[in-house]
Each structure stands twice: as C-alpha cells, then as structure tokens.
Target: Helix-turn-helix transcriptional regulator
Amino acid sequence: MQHFKTLSSYLDYLRLPRPEHPMLSVFNSRGDGYLPCPRESSPPITNDCYSISFKKYVEGNLNYGRTKYDFTNGALIFISPRQVLKWDNSVIFEQKGFSINFHQDFLKGTGLAQQIKKYGFFSYSTNEALHLSPKEDKQMESIVENIEIEYQNNQDAFSKEIIISQLETLLKYANRFYERQFLNRKEISNDLLEQLNQYLLKHSESGQLREKGIPSIEQIADTLSVSQRYLSDTLKKETGKTTTEHVHLYLIDEAKHILLQPNKSVSEVAYELGFEYPPYFSRLFKKKEGITPTEYREKFKLN
Model:
C-alpha cells in the first residue's frame, strides 16, 4: 500500500495544486466556483496528514476504511493520519465546500497536538459523518475563510498561531454539532443498543462465548456496520455507558443466573462466559456488584 509522508507528495498524487505552506493546504469554493478535482480513482493509500473536508455537491461512492459512503447530500468529514482511503471513477468530484489538509507535524509544540487526539470523530467512518444545518454551515465557512486569509497572505511569525487557533475553534464547533447530531438521532442510538444486546444474546446462546471468548469491540462494531469509536460515543451519549461497559453489564447479568446453578464452580462460570482467566471475572464481578461471585452465591442461598 502506498504511503505519503509529506503533504506535497500526497497532493501531487491527488493531482491537486501544491500547497502554499509545506505542511498546510486550504481549498475553498467561493460563489459559483468549485473545489479543484483530484484524480478520478485510487487504490488503497495512506498518508501522515489530517483532513477536514466539507463537500456539498458530489455523487458516487468513496471507500473510507471498509465503509462506502454516499456523498450526495454533503457532509463534513474528518480523516486522521494513516487512515486507509480509496475511491473509484464512480465519484463525481465537481463539488462545493472546503478542504483543509495539514501534516501531523504542523501541530508539534502546540496544545492542539494532544487535544486533536481526543476528538472521536477523526475515528468515525464516513457514513457517520457530520451533517450541517445551513446555520452551522455558515459558521464553519466563516472559520475556514479566516484560515484561508492567513494561508493566502504573506505568512509571518503570527500566522501559524492564528491558524492553529482557528483550527481549534473549528474542531470545537464540530464537537458541539456532533452532540446535536447524536441528540437528534436517538432512534439510531436506541437501535444500536438493541442490536448490541441481540448480538451478545446470540453470541451467548450459540455457545460462541465459551468457544471463542468475549467478542472484541472491533468484532461487535464490524457486525453492526459502524466504527468502534462511533458505537461507543453514541451509546455513551444515550446511556452514559460505553460499549465495553454494556458488554460487561451483559456478562455480569448472565453470570448472576449461572451462579445460581450449584453444580458449577466460579471458574466454570467464568469459562462459560468467555473469560480466559477466572480471577479477572471475579474482580470484574466484585467491581460491578460490590461482592465476589462466591459471596453472591452464598447471599442467594441465605435468601
């Protein structure tokens, strides 16, 4: 798989104009203008850059990781370094919007270098992209115009600091808008939780917990056709608990039923629930219930 270490080499590959800054590029359509068109297709590639793009008018499918996304309605998309990208000539790249690309080293020595890693949406798949209202669109465009002004003008000692500040503002707004999107899509949140519970139930009833162990978050997310971070963030917003916490709650709930069978030892219960190490099961049980599995069994006997 081809990997691009510099922003210039990445843009050259895309057949886009070379950047005004070696670590930053800004493309912005204005009025009746359109964004520059990149190459029509590409096998899987990776690079060392962050990308923030808002595409208003585009048709076709873009593969981002393992997910295809229909861009017809437009969306704000965030791509992190080393994310796998590929697309084919079914994509029509005549579009409005903006695209900001910056090398990860552009952030070195700034507070944003660490903060940007905390924004979960850089790990989302494109079918989980942020859809903006007209008002939100204008807010984002205003920030991008400020970035573009600094980018296009003769850059001085203050330019980078100003651009970083504007990027921080843009990402904070994106975080706010994602919160709004989660709230407006409660039916999706509820559906994901129901799908998760059904997946765990099927995994348990089929004997796969004992045979294959506790499913990883990656396995669960793949089955539900969402990214790991989006699944966890969505559940967190709706229920206050992450995917891992929901899995643990399911396992503990199952454990309570199995522990009531006197012919099974605590270790056997742990193995039946997919735990490789019984002591870990006992610690998790005590953490969630306040008592050990043995104490829980004894308490039930007393009742």
Notes: Residues 63-72 have pLDDT under 50 and may be disordered. Residues 159-184 form the longest helix (26 residues). The radius of gyration is 24 Å.
